[in-house]
Design a protein that fits this description.
CATH class of the largest domain in chain B: Alpha Beta
Number of helices of chain B: 7
CATH architecture of the largest domain in chain B: Alpha-Beta Barrel
Number of strands of chain B: 7
Strand content of chain B: 5-15%
Largest sheet of chain A: 5 strands, parallel
Oligomer: heterodimer
CATH architecture of the largest domain in chain A: 2-Layer Sandwich
Radius of gyration of chain B: 19 Å
CATH topology of the largest domain in chain B: Aconitase, domain 4
Largest interface: A-B, 84 and 57 residues
Distance between the termini of chain A: 49 Å
Strand order of the largest sheet of chain B: 1-5-6-7
Strand order of the largest sheet of chain A: 5-4-3-6-7
Distance between the termini of chain B: 46 Å
Low-confidence stretches of chain A: none
Largest sheet of chain B: 4 strands, antiparallel
Shape of chain B: globular
């Protein structure tokens, strides 16, 4: 019987079936950061346990670090305390940490693939729900809680139930000005924010096949926003080309052997899925969220829908969203005024994201009264962008060029919304309070659309600017 | 020998209803309160912003003080994998999160039943967690460690561990 990548990776990593009926699943790569690990290390100390496979564990600092002045100690004593704990824990347990001095620091979901740590056929866990990002290379990657971080540190395993599998096919081809971010926002809009609960998503079809690795990373990143803890793309020539020459990828003859194995773990033709969903890529417009979860989105030419268009169960959330955002049903999303523009995050903080934002930035200047931030996802992304002169383009247009970190994706560092500010953001969540202000408002969109909003001062159609 | 009974067959407590679907983890505990190296303060910040913005929020109501069964809508806890969210709820006093239509007084984990006064309805608890609670095997690290050397054996079979 034809098998899926999920079947093959799951079986290869199964240690045993637990008394609860769950699988004891071996974790091939454990990525850790400062926010969800200090309690886990303390539990390890309390139980006098060691890290089971230190060579399969890597750490970085990302959520709490400032993106302006990164000199220690940090101005925020709570952030400084978290950094101190992270550095001490990594030292005490002899684990590698990609700190500022290494030149390889960055958002955990940017550096994993960038360093070649994340490879096809692996199981990858991290105390962060956007770990599904790494599925883009053909891995089974998922977010875990802190107690599970302890489990992986102590045993290199997790107790897991195997998810069901839905193939999400994006057919046809994308129009100009439509990007990976628009594709995943359209998928979440169609399948719903809880549509993926209990599922892994296998992204496939001509649009996904043609995507670069960075685009696939963007798509897989937001799987969890559709309720799916896992999202992956089968390894292909794009995957192999992407990994060749990366620091932790196999080298020389070993690379060719690895590539052969990577190809062998892809889903076989004729394999069956628990469900298949289809989208027409040509019908996808640049997308913008108007509400308080990532499923509440419309194409930029469309109007904000009325609560009556939602199912009865969702209408109260719908009304709450309109009230929080100060939007009226029937209002066009285009033209909604913004105060802040943010390009960055594990969703859209890679070099290709910055390149397209720079292309748009060349077409104008940041509108009066708009604060616009460009935050590279890692030190290596920053270095590559600097080598091609992107910071100069951004600065000439009135954007701030920052240092690598999670920045304004979530309110854990100094980059935060103030009061009811409206933000055009390339990040992944528009939850109430997500960008640091309890009354702040977030419009999710692609980096190109964020840059377009920045120079227009309002939600704009990037297709008209790039014409 | 341990005399502690880790089994959790039934949980009894008062309900606290939380209306609305898709209540996300940033609502349960906003990210800015995660800057802690322990979980001890999390309970103080459960629904912090939602409580301030809505005086009618159930977590503000003296009527629900001491309640331990949180009755929620669909897709509760969506978003982040932060354990800080369940830790905040637990430290506030929540022992059970239920999707039942009313506020129950008892949740029978073993029989998968929820009781309201004299009424009893069937409930669903996923097999894995239910077996862990009923069997007292919810200390996941201890259970996983029991696999012993099978962990390394499994690892060595993987080409990316053994070497290509």
């Amino acid at each position: 019987m034809a098998r899926t990548l999920l079947d093959k990776v799951w079986d290869a990593h199964t240690v045993r079936t637990l008394p609860s009926g769950q699988t004891q699943l071996l974790i091939g790569l454990h990525l850790i950061h400062e926010v969800t690990t200090p309690q886990a290390f303390q539990m390890l100390r309390d139980s006098k346990l060691k890290v089971r496979m230190p060579e399969r564990t890597f750490g970085t600092l990302d959520h709490i670090i400032p993106t302006t002045d990164q000199a220690r100690p940090y101005a925020d004593p709570l952030a400084e305390e978290m950094a101190v704990h992270m550095i001490r824990n990594m030292k005490d347990f002899s684990l590698p940490l990609f700190d500022m001095a290494t030149g390889k620091q960055g958002i955990v979901h940017v550096i994993g693939p960038e360093l070649g740590l994340s490879q096809p056929g692996m199981t990858i866990a991290c105390g962060d729900s956007h770990t599904s990002t790494h599925g883009a290379v053909g891995a089974i990657a998922f977010g875990i809680g802190t107690t599970q971080v302890r489990d992986v540190l102590a045993t290199q395993c997790l107790a897991m139930a195997k998810p069901k599998l839905r193939q999400v096919r994006v057919e046809g081809a994308l129009a100009k000005g439509v990007y990976a971010k628009d594709v995943i926002l359209a998928i979440i809009n169609q399948l719903g924010v809880k549509g993926g609960v209990g599922y892994a998503y296998e992204y496939a079809g001509p649009v996904i096949d043609r995507m670069t690795m960075e685009e696939r990373l963007t798509v897989c990143n937001m799987s969890i926003e559709g309720g799916a803890r896992f999202g992956y793309v089968n390894p292909d020539a794009t995957t192999i080309d992407y990994l060749r020459g990366r620091q932790y990828a196999p080298a020389g003859a070993a690379f060719d052997k690895a590539a052969a194995w990577w190809k062998s773990i892809a889903t076989e033709s004729g394999a069956s899925f628990d469900d298949v969903a289809r989208l027409d890529g040509a019908a996808i417009e640049p997308m913008v969220t108007w509400g308080i979860n990532p499923g509440m989105s419309v194409g930029v030419s469309q109007r904000i829908p009325a609560p009556e268009s939602a199912s009865e169960a969702d209408r109260s959330t719908f009304r709450e969203a309109l009230a929080h955002m100060s939007f009226q049903a029937g209002q066009p999303i285009k033209g909604a005024k913004i105060d802040v523009a943010f390009v960055g995050s594990c969703t859209n903080g890679r070099l290709s994201d910055l390149r397209i934002a720079a292309e748009v930035a060349k077409k104008g200047k940041v509108a009066k009264g708009v604060r616009a931030l460009i935050v590279p996802g890692s030190q290596q992304v920053a270095k590559a962008a600097e080598a091609e002169g992107l910071p100069e383009i951004f600065q000439a247009a009135g954007f701030e060029w920052r240092k690598a970190g999670c920045s304004m994706c979530l309110g854990m560092n100094p980059d935060q919304l103030v009061g009811r500010e409206m933000s055009a953001s390339s990040s992944n969540r528009n939850f109430i309070g997500r960008q640091g202000s309890p009354t702040g408002r977030t419009l999710l969109m692609s980096p190109a659309m964020v840059a377009a909003a920045a120079i227009t001062g309002a939600v704009a159609d990037v297709r008209e600017i790039l014409k | 020998m341990s005399t502690v009974d880790f089994k959790r067959r039934q949980i009894v407590g008062r309900g606290i209803p939380l209306p609305g679907n898709d209540i996300d983890t940033d609502r349960i505990i906003p990210a800015r309160f995660l800057k802690e190296v322990t979980f001890t303060t999390m309970g103080e910040h459960a629904f912090e912003d939602a409580k301030k913005q809505n005086p009618e929020h159930p977590f503000n109501s003296p009527a629900y003080k001491g309640a331990s069964v949180l009755v929620v809508g669909q897709n509760f806890g969506c978003g982040s994998s932060r354990e800080h969210a369940p830790q905040a709820l637990m430290r506030w006093g929540i022992a059970v999160i239920s999707r039942s239509p009313q506020s129950p007084v008892a949740v029978d984990v073993e029989k998968q039943e929820v009781k309201f006064g004299s009424r009893t309805i069937k409930a669903t608890i996923p097999d894995g967690p239910r077996n862990q609670l009923v069997g007292g095997t919810w200390d996941s690290t201890a259970v996983l460690l029991e696999a012993g050397a099978a962990i390394e054996t499994t690892a060595r079979m993987l080409p990316y561990v053994a070497g290509f």
